[in-house]
Specification:
The complex is a heterodimer of chains A (185) and B (422).
Chain A: H1 2-12, E1 78-80, H2 93-105, E2 111-116, H3 123-143, E3 151-157, H4 168-174, E4 176-181
Parallel strand pairs in A: 2-3
Antiparallel strand pairs in A: 1-4, 2-4
Helix pairs in contact in A: 2-3
Chain B: H1 2-14, E1 22-25, E2 33-37, H2 50-60, E3 64-67, H3 84-89, E4 94-102, E5 108-116, E6 121-130, H4 135-151, E7 160-167, E8 170-177, E9 184-189, E10 193-198, E11 204-209, E12 216-221, E13 227-231, E14 237-242, E15 249-253, E16 260-264, E17 272-273, E18 281-286, E19 292-297, E20 304-309, E21 316-317, E22 325-330, E23 336-343, E24 346-353, E25 359-361, E26 368-373, E27 379-386, E28 389-396, E29 402-406, E30 411-417
Parallel strand pairs in B: 2-3, 2-4
Antiparallel strand pairs in B: 1-29, 4-5, 5-6, 7-8, 7-30, 8-9, 10-11, 11-12, 12-13, 14-15, 15-16, 16-17, 18-19, 19-20, 20-21, 22-23, 23-24, 24-25, 26-27, 27-28, 28-29
Helix pairs in contact in B: 2-4
The chains are: A alpha+beta (185), B mainly beta (422).
Chain lengths: 185, 422
């Protein structure tokens, strides 16, 4: 239904409602190609004007971005932490190195790092701890060649948990830094 | 429990069940003053029953016990001759009589008088002019008067509280009377709102909103709803605290790297850095005399509370017991510190006497956060998580009286108790 609505919206520039009403424009009246229509022979309804389309995507393929290609390490965007800690565990170093390389090779690329914590303890302290995690990651990216102006480190503290549970499994998922590139935030 | 049910019943009648805080009292002071509050003849014409609210206020403090008043004919008012022996026989130590009358201008006049039944003497009274809708506010004023006359300290029934309710993906910063009634939404957002802080005059709130996808400090005028950015630098902007004279905010910025404490004027001008550490420094609060800032820092390896001069300088460590002490708040007399301490993985509210260094854990909760001290120092409002759901609770500074305030179908957090009404 949504797809139909979208199509109608684009075709008619009309507001889309999930409840069909009698005010909706009737669909094409005749199921014939325009060339088959004879002037004067038309006796019913309103002629739907033809639309001459332009397809910019024809014959081209959108280049897959390495940032979102599931086969690229750059599509991995999260780093996880131990309780109360902000140091980056060894298992995440290849990921950090890959993103640093990307920033080095694409000087116009901009990155936002969002630091997160689990939900226990003070919200403000957790905001600071998330900041510490994000900045620790930023520092490592810069040591590996990223420029200061390319990376902003912010904290979401405990405010945006990825996992909602009240257990260590959920908390471990929420002690995390996320990497976002311009256009993704 | 009876009170909770009564509150719920009122909620359903008013159709506002999703919003208002319901209060459950789970403890009481050792000695409660038995007080009789007779119905005020004429109060039924108002939007709320004054005598009922006065009684509920006083009982909620944990310092009073309301005495049931049988129907008396003719109903007594503040102008009636008091039959002290009758009230003594009902075991009342104190008595409130009053009345409500319509004025020629269409407004109302509420009068009351407070009596000491034991000494058989009137203690005073006041007359208020009010609109029909001002019954609740008037009742809170009367409760404040009675409370102060009988306990010697100011009442907080006329004060307001701010808190954040999360319902689904919606966050609402709400302002309510200290009893949880009459809530109004100051800000609704699809992004988190944390750390509301009342200006000393009670007219403005500073808070942290994530509406721009990162923490930014706003100052919001409650009278006209106008708000402006007080700090929006690169990185995080958070933990606003007003100086006692309202002229400055202590804030936490990460613009220079690391979370550090800065001063800023409430209009956003005059930023100045106060701490210079390589550690986390956050949650600043002023001492009531404005001379010091208490704050949380992990400079010693674990988060602990420190104190430094309000214009910066050397910090002294204040908490030593345990490996996690955060969210400091200073009592109005400057002598006590309330904070959250971690005990065996449980986060509980603690009180430290700054002179004797005596520390007392006031709650047996698993997950306390964000304590806020009533302006008279008697109660501490805090957020706690029970069964995965956030609610507010209150505990008296001696740990005896406990209350729970919950919103049905919502997570409540980040309470802040407002100042005395001037």
């Amino acid at each position: 239904m949504r797809a139909i609505c979208t199509a109608l919206t684009i075709a008619a520039l009309a507001a889309c409602s999930s409840t069909p009403t009698s005010e909706q424009p009737p669909a094409g009246v005749e199921d014939r190609p325009p060339s088959a229509t004879q002037p004067g022979a038309q006796t019913q309804g309103v002629q739907r004007p033809p639309v001459a389309g332009v397809d910019l995507t024809a014959g081209k393929k959108a280049a897959p971005s390495p940032l979102t290609d599931p086969g690229s390490i750059l599509s991995r965007r999260s780093i996880y932490y131990d309780l109360d800690k902000y140091d980056i565990r060894d298992e995440f170093k290849p990921l950090v190195e890959a993103h640093a390389r990307y920033l080095r090779d694409n000087r116009s690329a901009k990155m936002l790092i969002q630091g997160n914590t689990d939900e226990r303890g003070s919200r403000e302290y957790n905001l600071a701890l998330g900041q510490r995690r994000a900045e620790g990651l930023k520092k490592m990216l810069m040591l590996l060649g990223a420029q200061e102006a390319q990376v902003e480190a912010v904290s979401l503290g405990e405010e945006k948990p990825r996992a909602e549970g009240q257990n260590e499994t959920a908390w471990a998922q929420n002690r995390r830094s996320d990497i976002l590139y311009a256009g993704e935030y | 429990m009876r009170r909770l049910l009564a509150a719920l019943a009122i909620l359903f009648l008013s159709g506002a069940a999703q919003a208002q805080l319901a209060i459950e009292i789970t403890g009481a002071g050792a000695q409660r003053i038995p007080i009789a509050i007779a119905p005020f003849p004429g109060e039924a014409s108002l939007s709320a029953m004054i005598s009922t609210i006065v009684r509920a206020d006083l009982e909620r403090s944990g310092l009073f016990r309301g005495i049931e008043v049988p129907p008396i004919v003719p109903p007594p008012t503040e102008a009636t001759d008091v039959q002290y022996t009758d009230w003594r026989a009902r075991l009342a130590d104190a008595l409130v009589l009053g009345s409500v009358a319509r004025r020629p201008d269409g407004r109302f006049e509420a009068r009351f008088r407070l009596f000491d039944v034991v000494k058989q003497t009137p203690l005073g009274g006041i007359a208020y002019t009010l609109n029909r809708e001002q019954a609740r506010a008037t009742a809170h004023r009367i409760a404040d008067y009675v409370y102060e006359k009988l306990t010697g300290e100011r009442g907080v029934f006329s004060t307001r509280i701010a808190y954040v309710v999360k319902r689904g993906n919606r966050y609402e910063l709400q302002i309510a009377d200290a009893d949880g009634a009459g809530e109004e939404t100051a800000l609704a957002s699809f992004e988190p709102i944390i750390s509301p802080a009342w200006s000393p005059d009670g007219r403005r709130l500073a808070y942290v909103s994530f509406e721009n996808k990162k923490p930014v400090i706003y100052v919001h005028s409650l009278l006209d709803g106008k708000r402006h950015v007080a700090a929006n630098f690169k990185g995080s902007n958070s933990a606003p605290a007003w100086s006692p004279d309202g002229s400055r905010l202590a804030v936490v910025l990460s613009r220079d790297g690391g979370s550090q404490i800065f001063l800023v004027n409430p209009d956003g001008s005059g930023v100045r850095r106060l701490t210079q550490s390589a550690s986390i420094d956050t949650e600043p609060v002023y001492s009531p005399d404005g001379q010091y800032l208490y704050f949380t820092s992990d400079r010693g390896g674990s988060p602990q509370i420190y104190r430094m001069p309000a214009n910066g300088g050397d910090a002294q460590r204040v908490t030593f017991e345990g490996s996690y002490n955060v969210s400091p708040r200073v009592s109005a007399d400057g002598r006590k510190l309330v904070f959250i301490t971690r005990n065996d993985g449980k986060f509980q509210t603690a009180l430290l006497d700054l002179a004797t260094r005596q520390m007392q854990v006031l709650t047996d909760s698993d997950r306390d956060e964000s304590p806020s001290i009533a302006p008279n120092g008697r109660m501490i409002l805090l957020a706690t998580v029970l069964g995965g759901r956030g609610m507010l609770s209150a505990v008296s500074a001696d740990g005896r009286v406990k209350q729970r305030l919950s919103v049905s179908a919502g997570d409540v957090r980040e309470p802040a108790w407002g100042p005395f009404i001037q």
